[in-house]
Design goal:
mainly alpha
Amino acid sequence: MSITRDEVAHLARLARLDLSEEELARMPGQLDAILGAVAQVSEVAGPDVPPTSHAIGLVNVLREDVVRPCLTSAAALSGAPAAEDERFRVPRILGEEP
């Protein structure tokens, strides 16, 4: 499969790329090289090769979820300027109640 200058010009027009004459002359060869490389990979990758998105396998690094002691509400509220009913008391930001 070979890409022609006219095909590159057509694709550039569709993509709204303003390519110069020099670029239109150079692109077919470069795109042919890319298609050739993809074809080579396709030949090597048989049905026994699983598809992958990375060259190196990635694994999430996660720790086991373990229940640990946490602050009591009294300890959490101990540094608060005001508390009420085991909650932080904050100034009202909306209008007065009717």
